[in-house]
Design goal:
Elements lengths: L2 H20 L12 H17 L6 H5 L2 E2 L3 H9 L11 H11 E2 L5 E3 L19 H17 E4 L1 H5 L13 E2 L10 H13 L3 H18 L19 H12 L2 H18 L5 E5 L5 E5 L13 H8 L5 H17 L22 E2 L1 H20 L3 H21 L1 E2 L4 E2 L2 E2 L9 E3 L30 H10 L3 E2 L2 E2 L14 E2 L1 H13 L3 H25 L6 E2 L19 H14 L10
Parallel strand pairs: 6-12
Antiparallel strand pairs: 1-2, 3-4, 4-5, 6-7, 8-11, 9-10, 13-14, 15-16
Helix pairs in contact: 1-13, 6-19, 8-9, 8-10, 8-19, 9-10, 9-11, 10-11, 10-14, 11-14, 14-15, 17-18, 17-19, 18-19
EC number: 3.2.1.28
Family: Belongs to the glycosyl hydrolase 37 family.
GO molecular function: alpha,alpha-trehalase activity
Length: 581
């Protein structure tokens, strides 16, 4: 037996021992990644060591593809010369990457959207201001820039790529995000629908449904390294919105089985939590919980550095799961998930019942009931109507805080029974104001309880401190994390604005319009300054894009474009209202 094989067996045995000793701390499942991803993480680590931190983007290296089969390239990589501390000389690493790896830009190729029209008939009829209309048409034209299809060579040899071989054309967010992302796609679709791009929107949904068919849930994004987590579940909402504009029952029929699978994913196993309210009634709610306990491959070197301050492998693995679970939430990262808001290593996502996830699931259940009724599946519709009623009751029992007028995240402590049933206590509600506290407004009947009035929620939002000159801040904590103050993100702006509109209260509609005007102005002025749409904005001042987090602020940008177009479709822009700050 060769020395290399003996060493591999020894290493695997040691890892199994470590896994066993860590089970008392980290009990969750792990979905293994692919050998290709594991190898590209090694390239990523070598590249950081060789090239240094300046301008380094860890994701780039796990997005690369192979020019030859994996075993030959691994052999060539292992033969690279190494000097002090295993560092590969720059010229040698340059030559290796140039010879054996290909840029991610070659894997998704440009494709003209089949249904793009420069100025669609009936486009944004409420926009009367010529300056705003010209900008809206430029934003609409960005769908052409962001339209891609998976290259033929990826479809022919998918084993050489971390990119997943989706069959239909896609709209990517932009910049470093060169693949489809789950919850981004909802707001992209809202923008596509405003521009009458119905076939492109349906193609995106069909791609996401194919991921459920393959994995049982929609992945965070269309990469092999995202197979161990999802993102906020909004696929049913996409299908409802497309149906409402197209009447496509065939899409509903084809998608419904996948929606049932996705609903099961979020309401079973590690995602499901049973909690007993103050009156002794049990409720089922859900949490984010990634099936992974190692550094996220797309940020492997970053996560490893974050965890380096922890004393042992077990605590590191626990942190890695919490970081991946925060990424599943879409809020990566935020003090919302931390027991100590200034310390990322205290991230505890799996110990939190999140308001927004359960509001998304309530909407999913209502949407599935609606879609099932459309195609004559009355028993499915009845089941999900009842499920929605139960979740609505749970949301109001567990999350609602009458004193604050908000729904609050709930921190889980050790359960009091052998059946893992948690007992509700007021002190475990997180009393901090987050934008996510207002997501239940987005679902129908969120204020149907006699004790919960839309007026109270509106007043709470206005006095929370979250409402800033250019939109809604995500939190009130300025930690340097990108989902904290002073950043505002497009999806939460839209959810809250649309939720306020759905309430039917005039005071709520007035507030919704005010927030929309602030958000549209900052998007417009920033676009004029930079020539680009940005993924997030600094809401403390008009005309500034956001910052913070583990990468530079990105441009493009899928959901930003979609939210702008959706808001202009809803509110329009009068001729005499100025768009500048």
């Amino acid at each position: 037996m060769g020395k290399a094989i003996i060493f591999m067996i020894f290493t695997m045995s040691m890892n199994m021992i470590k896994d066993e000793t860590c089970k008392s701390i980290d009990k969750g499942p792990v979905i293994p990644t692919t050998p290709l991803v594991i190898f590209l993480e090694k390239v990523q680590e070598a590249a950081l060591q060789t090239y240094g931190h300046k301008g380094f983007d860890a994701k780039l290296f796990v997005d690369m593809s192979l020019r030859e089969n994996l075993s030959e390239i691994v052999e060539a990589f292992n033969k690279l010369p190494r000097i002090l501390n295993g560092l590969v000389p720059k010229s040698d690493l340059d030559d290796f990457i140039g010879s054996y790896l290909s840029s991610p830009d070659e894997d998704l190729v440009y494709v003209e959207p089949m249904d793009f029209v420069a100025e669609p008939e009936g486009f944004l009829p409420k926009v009367k201001n010529s300056e705003v209309r010209a900008w809206a048409l430029k934003v609409h034209s960005l769908w052409k820039n962001l339209s891609r299809k998976v290259a033929d060579h990826v479809l022919e040899k998918p084993e050489l790529y971390t990119l997943l071989p989706l069959k239909n054309p896609v709209i990517i967010p932009g910049s470093r995000f060169k693949e489809v992302y789950y919850w981004d796609s909802y707001w992209i679709i809202r923008g596509l629908l405003a521009g009458k791009m119905y076939e492109t929107a349906k193609g995106i949904v069909t791609n996401l449904v194919s991921l459920i068919d393959q994995f049982g849930y929609v992945l965070n994004g269309a990469r092999a390294y995202y197979s161990n987590r999802s993102q906020p579940p909004v696929l049913a909402a996409m299908i409802v919105d497309i149906f409402n504009q197209t009447g496509d029952l065939d899409l509903v029929r084809r998608s419904l089985p996948a929606l049932l699978k996705e609903n099961h994913f979020w309401n079973s196993g590690i995602h499901k939590v049973t909690i007993q309210d103050a009156q002794g009634s049990n409720h089922s709610l859900s949490r984010y919980y990634a099936m992974w306990n190692k550094p996220r491959p797309e940020s492997s070197t970053i996560d490893s550095k974050t965890a380096s301050v922890l004393p042992n492998i077990c605590e590191k693995r626990e942190l890695y799961r919490e970081l991946a679970s925060a990424a599943e939430s879409g809020w990566d990262f935020s003090s919302r998930w931390m027991s100590n808001g200034s310390d990322l290593t205290t991230t505890s996502t799996t110990s939190i019942l999140p308001v927004d996830l359960n509001a998304f699931l309530l909407k999913m259940e209502l949407d599935i009931a609606f879609l099932a009724n459309l195609v004559g599946e009355s028993s499915t519709a009845s089941h999900f109507t009842e499920a929605a009623q139960n979740r609505q009751k749970a949301i109001n029992c567990i999350f609602w805080n009458a004193e604050m007028g908000q729904w609050l995240d709930y921190w889980l402590t050790n359960s009091d029974t052998s059946e893992d049933i948690y007992k509700w206590e007021d002190l475990h509600q997180n009393k901090k104001s987050f934008a996510s506290n207002f997501v239940p407004l987005w679902t129908e009947n969120s204020c149907s309880d006699n004790n919960i009035t839309t007026q109270k929620v509106v007043q709470s939002l206005m006095s929370s401190g979250l409402l800033q000159p250019a939109g809604i801040a995500m939190t009130l904590s300025n930690t340097g994390q990108q989902w904290d103050f002073p950043n505002g993100w497009p999806p939460l702006q839209h959810i809250i604005i649309e939720g306020l509109l759905r309430s039917g209260l005039e005071e709520a509609r007035t507030l919704a319009k005010d927030i929309a005007i602030r958000w549209l102005r900052t998007n417009y002025v920033t676009y004029k300054k930079t020539g680009a749409m940005h993924e997030k904005y600094d809401v403390t001042k008009c005309g500034a894009h956001g910052g913070g987090g583990e990468y530079m602020s990105q441009t493009g940008f899928g959901w930003s474009n979609g939210v702008v177009l959706a808001l202009l479709e809803e509110f329009g822009w009068p001729e005499d209202l100025k768009i500048d700050c």
